[in-house]
Amino acid sequence: MKKEAARRYHELLREVRRHDHLYYVEARPEISDAAYDRLYRELQDLEKSHPDLADENSPTKKVGGTPLASFRTLRHAVPMQSLNNTYSEGELQEFLDRVAKNLHGQAADFAIEPKVDGVAVSVRYEHGRLTQGLTRGDGEKGDDITENLKTIRNLPLSVDGLPKVIEFRGEVYLPEPAFAALNRAREKAGEPLFANPRNAAAGTLKLLDSREVAKRPLAVVFYGLGEVVGAKAGAQDELHRQIGKWGLPGHSWFRHVEGADGVRKAIRDLDKDRAKFPFATDGAVIKVNRFDQQRVLGSTDKAPRWAIAYKYAPEQAETRLHAITFQVGRTGVITPVAELDPVQLSGTTVSRATLHNFEEIARKDIRVGDWVTVEKAGEIIPAVLSVNLKRRPKDAGPIRPPARCPVCGGPLRKEEVFLRCTAPDCVGQLKRRLQHFAHRGAMDIEGMGEVMVAQLIDAGLVQHLDQIYGLTEEQLAGLERMGEKSAANLVAGIATSKRRPLGRLIFALGIPQVGAVSAEALARHFGSMEKLEKAGVEDLVRVKDVGKKMAEEVAAFFREASTRRLLESLRKAGCNFTALPGELAVHGGPFSGKKFVITGTLSAPREEFTRRIQSLGGSVAGTVSAKTDYLLAGEEAGSKLAKAKGLGVRVLNEAEFERLAGPDSPAR
Ligand code: IVH
Asked: Residue 115: CB within 6 Å of ligand 1?
């Protein structure tokens, strides 16, 4: 019996690992997710019934541990550098010439590998055990994300035959199918979408709760070394092979070539093959192969002289536009959307693209049935660039703007280039408005995502936003897929939302032009909803960062009869209409009079940090200048960081920010 269990256990271990490899490394899964889950569960069950069998490196160990309060910042044993970029064959040739010159006539061979568009990490093993994982941070110091990295399924926690100390440098990424699934789930829940897989991976690594990280199937790929004690590596191609032999995730696609022609051919080959990889790539990395020659060439303070990135042009694809649909936003603006025959673009499948507005459609003369060129330039929402007139079908007629609201049939008004539905009871708008109202950054009503909002409105339970405060458990329990418990939870969530700070409520109202930050500013300035309601344009422009246009929108919004009715009901329902002490500026706070700029990916949304800075007396601007006191820089900070350094502006990472904010700073 015991023997049989052991046999089955090892068989399952092998199988689950093999399927992990197929999924993460080769991007060609052989079995469905459900079949995988069955194997995985059987493995878990066996480990429970036979704890003595359990392998410490079992894939089931990747579940995450206790959440952290914040990340520690630690120094890299060897700094993590960046790469210089080239965009043309001419620039590539200049790099090759520079290498030849600096090697004084010695011939060099090269390693070519994919440039992974992920998040750079350094992973340290001591005596064969994974002991530490850091983000790149500013290159000198990074955040300690060990617990999060330990959840990564293709990253072994211990490895036989490693040198005494070895650090691997690589990229963490979210495989394309997992990214698509994650965004689908977030859309359903009414949560904001990640712009691209890189952004999703960066956000995930910044979660303080590694159990949450474990739920997202991140993967890693190694291509370099940091500190190494007790071994000597000779060349990049050897490193690639050795990474594979250790059973660590490495690049199975790399080329070892000689001469400029060899380099150029490898770059072309990679461009053809890269669509098959499970990670997004945006270029090739060309490295001088031999490590002794790399040492001779050395580095500048930012990037090595022995390597360069060759960036591929953003990807475009031609596909057929088979229909136009319309979306009605929360302010009633109608956005035309191109429904496309699915096409592969920069590693993702694209089937929709925004057409912005009807003037744009007319300008580009886009018609249903047309073949169009779509481009994705870094962001997930692709754009229709142009129409291929040669392939236009004879019967393709121009797209006419709708005469009435496509959702409620209400009247439309033209505003600048936009069409807006003006029906006060438009169901399309109501859905969007309620989604926005309940959203995490606004009233934060748990359980009221897109699907729930649609159910409430379709069932006729909510015809006006404020009616959510009158919903009862009995009414909710009658809805599809809604048990008594979830009905009770939702009613409780709705009740809790009444106590949100005033700034949140102002933001939740969805006033045109007013984002989370301006809503906070209005709350701070006026202190109560009553005062804000009465404010005229001339009062509103006195508020910091409120311009004339926003002031006019705010005043017009509060003049409307429907707004007055809404506020009256919210007041009666018991919503908080007064600024809480924490919302009012703290004069003499630790950031009093200090100007901040925020950049990069942080552990919470930027609005969160903005709120805190403002509540401690500081202000936040969009661009770095000589007047900036601090740059709060998260992961993958780009040009703002460079500019701040150039101007000598003090740069803070999150940990330093927390220290300055002090222990009394308002909770996040
Ligand atoms: S080598 C000192 N190789 O691209 C050597 N980097 O834009 C520096 N990257 O910071 C890195 N794929 O995060 C190297 N095959 C690869 C890479 C790679 C992606 C990232 C890395 C680097 C960034 C520079």
From this structure: yes
Q: Indicate whether this model's pTM tops 0.70.
A: no
CA of 650 to the centre of ligand 1 (A): 26
Judge whether 476 and 490 are in contact, CB under 8 Å: yes
Residue 282 token pair: 């945006």
Q: Work out the pLDDT band at 387, boundaries 50, 70, 90.
A: very high
Please tell me the distance between residue 71's alpha carbon and the centre of ligand 1 in angstroms: 23
Bridge partners (DSSP) listed for residue 445: none
Flag the least confident range among 134-138, 379-383, 403-407: 379-383
The confidence score (pLDDT) of residue 191 equals 60
What are the DSSP calls for 506-535, one per residue? HHHTT-TT--HHHHHHHHHHH-BHHHHHH-
Least confident range from 82-86, 461-465, 583-587: namely: 583-587
Question: 297 in ligand 1 pocket by Cβ < 6 Å?
Answer: no
The yes-or-no verdict on residue 516 having pLDDT over 90 is: no
pLDDT of 509 > 90? The answer is yes
Contact 19, 30 (CB under 8 A): yes
> Which residue do the tokens 């927390």 mark?
658
Name residue, tokens 């990049």.
Answer: 236
Is any ligand 1 atom within 6 A of the Cβ of residue 113?
Answer: yes
Phi, psi torsion values for 7, nearest 5 degrees = -65, -50
81 lines ligand 1 (CB under 6 A): yes
Q: Is 115 annotated in the active site?
A: yes
Any atom of ligand 1 within 6 Å of the Cβ of 309: yes
Q: Which residue has the higher pLDDT, 479 or 2?
A: 479
**pLDDT at residue 583, rounded to an integer:** 74
- pLDDT (0 to 100) of residue 77: 95
Q: Which domains does the chain have, with CATH numbers?
A: 2-55 (1.10.287.610), 85-311 (3.30.470.30), 316-391 (2.40.50.140), 427-497 (1.10.150.20), 502-583 (1.10.150.20), 595-661 (3.40.50.10190)
Q: What is residue 190's predicted lDDT score, i.e. its pLDDT? A: 56
Residue whose CA is at the smallest distance from ligand 1 atom 2: 81
Q: Which of 95, 285, 297 is the best mutation target for the ligand 1 pocket, counting ligand atoms within 8 Å of the beta carbon and taking the most? A: 285
CA of 83 to the centre of ligand 1 (A): 6
